[in-house]
Amino acid sequence: MTKAVFILKNEKGFTLLEASIAFGLTLLIVSVIPLIVTSIAWTPFYKHDSSFELQVFYNQLHSEVRGSETIVATENSLSLMINEEEVRYDLSSESIYRRVQGRGYVPMLDSVQSFTCEMDELERLSCVTIMKHGYVFERSMSSLFSKVTNNEE
């Protein structure tokens, strides 16, 4: 009887080898999860991401165009006069930057191949942005009280 109790007592726990294997497998799984999550996070969803960034950029631009007194559109740049301050959007080294009164150099949009704004037939400012990966976005906007001019530099 004592021998049977002793055998049952030994079978309740794990051996050191079993615990080591379970611990090793757990560490392996836990160390692979961050690699999988990182690779999923870096998968390029260009069209989706660019579309969202472009929407945010054009919403900001539209807000400033609405309140501008004068708009001057040139190739790869746009100049707005708002409350006697010049707000300028320039395409430089594949990014669109925003400057106020020639100060600051705020990146607004990256991976841009082309940024063109011109006045259309309805007296609206029409801007076309072509992204580096080929995504094209166009938006027309108008000011409440401005004159839109096209300058070819």
Task: Note down, in words, how this protein is organized.
The protein is 37% helix and 38% strand. By secondary structure, it is of the alpha+beta class. Strands 5-4-3-2-1-9 form a 6-stranded mixed sheet, covered by helices on one side. A 3-stranded antiparallel sheet has the order 6-7-8, with helices on one face. Strand 7 and strand 8 form a beta hairpin. It is rod-shaped, with a radius of gyration of 30 Å. 14% of the residues are buried. The model has no long low-confidence stretch (mean pLDDT 80).
Topology:
Layout: H1 2-10, H2 16-41, H3 46-66, E1 70-74, E2 77-82, E3 85-92, E4 95-100, E5 103-110, E6 112-119, E7 125-131, E8 136-141, E9 147-150
Parallel strand pairs: 1-9
Antiparallel strand pairs: 1-2, 2-3, 3-4, 4-5, 6-7, 7-8
Q: Flag low-confidence runs.
A: none
Number of helices: 3
Helix content percent band: 25-40%
Strand order of the largest sheet: 5-4-3-2-1-9
> SS-based structural class?
alpha+beta
SSE series: HHHEEEEEEEEE
Overall outline:
rod-shaped
The biggest sheet, with number of strands, parallel, antiparallel or mixed sense and barrel status, is:
6 strands, mixed
Tell me the total number of β-strands: 9
Mean pLDDT across every amino acid position: 80
Question: What is the gist of this entry?
Answer:
The protein is built from three helices and nine strands. It has 153 residues and is α+β, with helices and mostly antiparallel strands. It has a six-stranded mixed β-sheet with strand order 5-4-3-2-1-9, with helices on one face. A three-stranded antiparallel β-sheet has the order 6-7-8, covered by helices on one side.
